Amino acid sequence: MIEKYLTPEFIMALGMLAVMVLCPTFLVYALAKKQKPARPIPHFPQGVQGWLLIFVATVVLSLILTVVDAINIAGQMRQTIGSVNWSFMAPYIVVCGLYLYCLWLITFKRAAFVVRQVIVILWVVGPISLLLLTFFFGATVPNAVIARSAIYAGLWTCYFLFSKRVACTYGTKAVDSYVDIALKMAQAQKDIEAKKDKN
Q1: Dihedral of CA 7/10/16/20: which sign?
Q2: Residue 17 is inside which H or E element, if any?
Q3: Count of beta carbons in the 10 Å neighbourhood of residue 70
Q4: 187: pLDDT confidence band, cut at 50, 70 and 90?
Q5: Tell me: the pLDDT tens digits for 112-155?
């Protein structure tokens, strides 16, 4: 069954897609390393690495897939009506612009507003845009696709709200609670060392 899909063409296409995702993701990683975290805490993760870098990769993949969809739809329009209806293409252009803006924020900005705007973008380009395509543009979007999009946005929203890395990198209010934890950890370490010295 699986062998049916593992054709040389499929493997080549998958490899090309992987390269197209990995190259921009590495570029974001390299450029983001030059930016100092907003609220660094010793021994806490910071910077565009770990799960945050995986999020970047998913945004890059979504951007590529959206561009491919837009190109395919534009091609179908040319074949059927002889021209491209740009009002119908507008949602794709807006979504691509928001993805690029999201990547720019994550790469170059180090402020709490980044987290708020990224969360808004997640929901706008995800379930909200799919619902708009369904109700206002007459597109047929399966409920399962909308549900998956909402789950994706929900999971990453939780990550951005509660991640130590995100809090330290962008200086959200959550970092204050992590500062308290870091201070308690440092005090506990001092107490352990003091007990060792007494013994």
Answers
A1: negative
A2: helix 8-32
A3: 17
A4: low
A5: 999 999 999 999 998 888 887 777 766 677 888 888 999 999 99
Q: What would the two tokens of residue 15 be?
A: 């490899």
What Cα–Cα distance (Å) separates residue 110 from each residue in 33, 36, 143, 178? 12, 7, 36, 17
Read off the amino acid at residue 158: C
Query: How large is the greatest C-alpha to C-alpha distance in the chain, in angstroms?
Result: 87
Going by C-alpha positions, the residue among 125, 97, 106, 87 that lies closest to residue 163 is 106
pLDDT value, residue 86: 73
- Which residue type occupies 181? I
User: CB atoms < 10 A from the CB of 173, how many?
Assistant: 10
Q: Which residue has the tokens 């565009």?
A: 48
Q: Please choose, from the candidates 28, 35, 33, the residue with its C-alpha nearest in 3D space to the C-alpha of residue 56.
A: 28
CA dihedral sign of residues 97, 98, 104, 107: negative
Q: How confident is the model at residue 40 (pLDDT cuts 50, 70, 90)?
A: confident
- Nearby residues of 50 by Cβ (< 8 Å), 6 or more positions away: 165
Residues 125, 126, 128, 131, Cα dihedral to 10°: 120
> Which two three-digit tokens encode residue 163?
């991640």
3-state SS assignment for residue 121: helix
Quick one: tokens of 23?
A: 């190259």
Q: What's the pTM value of the predicted model, to 2 decimals?
A: 0.82
What is the pLDDT averaged over residues 97-125?
95
